[in-house]
Amino acid sequence: MRSFKIKKLKHFMNQLLLADTFDYFSVSEASVTTFVTFTIDGSLHPDFYDPDTAARLKAAGKSQVRWSGIKSWCYSVIRGKRTPISFRFIFILPEDRTHALCEACGSPVEPENVSGLYLNIQYSNASLTVTTGTSLKIFTLDKTLEHAFDDAAKDFLLRHDIDFEEA
To answer: In this predicted structure, what is the pLDDT of residue 38?
Structure first.
């Protein structure tokens, strides 16, 4: 697990809410506190969709909404004259990228044993922090995958010119 304190909030928020930088991440949950707290559970509900779409989602193994699917709603809640009191977005690296990372880093952990590789974005008290997290379905002392994801998250931030200091 690594934690990155974001130095330039405006640039980060533009990357998060206006650019497509984070669009491929799945969303576990989202919460924005303004005059009330708005909370989103990122779980998709197949019953909402027509049978063909529901079948395609199930066949593709998609159980979480992508950030691109709720970003505009979150933007509409956050924007305005007053800064939110706080917000939190918990992103999950999509399954295909999790598989690729497992293979690339040489981790002994099989991709099907990964519950999720998480990127937690939290804002409160005028401070924004991005924290990585790894959840496995098995117990292992091997930290290869965790370190690889931490490094990939750091590289992701650097690649998008997001200025940070490790916390």
So the answer is: 96
